[in-house]
Write a structure and sequence with these properties.
Elements: H1 2-17, H2 28-35, E1 40-51, E2 56-69, E3 72-82, E4 87-92, E5 96-101, E6 113-117, H3 135-144, E7 146-148, E8 151-157, H4 158-164, H5 166-169, E9 181-188, E10 194-202, E11 217-230, E12 241-242
Parallel strand pairs: 6-12
Antiparallel strand pairs: 1-2, 1-11, 2-3, 3-4, 4-5, 5-6, 7-8, 8-9, 9-10, 10-11
């Protein structure tokens, strides 16, 4: 009897010892950095809504491609359709930003693009203020948010964004009230990459030219696909560009 019990104990110990070990959770920042290869990037689709606190309506429907370089974002091509069917397109190549459509304003005859030196931040107040392709931004969102399953929910201020995000710091919103809060919900894929990012903020302390937006709320829902795929952003033909 004693021998039988010993055998069972040994067998039980063997079974416990050989149970498959659970994989360690992926570090999203480390996974992100592994995709930041020059000539590669990510695509996204986005719906931006506007609210005055009483009514909410769709403002923009956007599709974009972000191209990476050795130091992060190197270029992008973003096309948007507004609620009134106006279409905008913005291209950035690391040196200048090119605007077409309503964002370009009135152009000389034969020109369809306006070139502006610099750029690299969000094209308008309705684009995503949080850029999860930046390791510093993603790290801040993960640290400030609470994780439940594959989602991270939290808030971050414009002032905090200025410290960690080149995308935000180059935008027209960088001078708005520092205590403006952005609420967000970030969803991670099984690979540890951001697949969806919902965010919302109410504008206050806006800069000149945005007075009508004061007190309004922007709600942006962005979905990311094709992380690490090869992408190419081409600038407009010089013949179509004016400065």
């Amino acid at each position: 009897m004693r021998k039988t019990i010993s055998v069972l104990v040994v067998c039980g110990a063997f079974l416990v010892g050989t149970a498959p070990a659970q994989a360690a959770p992926k570090d999203p920042v480390r996974v992100l950095k592994s995709t930041l290869i020059p000539g590669h990037g990510v695509r996204y689709t986005e719906i931006a809504n506007w609210s005055d606190g009483v009514e909410t309506s769709q403002a923009y429907d956007t599709k974009g491609v972000l191209q990476f370089g050795k130091k992060g974002l190197a270029a992008y091509d973003i096309a948007s359709s507004a609620w009134d069917e106006e279409k905008d397109r913005v291209i950035y190549n690391g040196k200048a930003t090119y605007y077409s459509g309503a964002l370009a304003g009135e152009l000389p005859k034969g020109k369809t693009w306006l070139e502006v030196p610099g750029g690299g931040g969000m094209p308008s107040e309705y684009d995503h203020v949080l850029d999860p392709t930046e390791p510093t931004t993603l790290s801040a969102l993960l640290k400030k948010g609470g994780k439940s399953g594959n989602t991270v929910t939290g808030t971050i201020t414009f002032g905090e964004l200025r410290k960690v995000s080149a995308w935000f710091s180059r935008s027209d919103l960088r001078s708005w009230a520092s205590d403006t809060e952005v609420s967000y919900k970030l969803t991670l894929s099984s690979a540890g990459l951001v697949s969806r990012l919902w965010s919302s903020y109410t504008a206050k302390g806006v800069s000149e030219g945005y007075e009508d937006f004061e007190g309004s709320t922007a709600i942006v829902d962005t979905r990311y696909t094709g992380w690490g795929a090869k992408v190419s952003v081409k600038t407009p033909s010089p013949k179509t560009v004016t400065e």
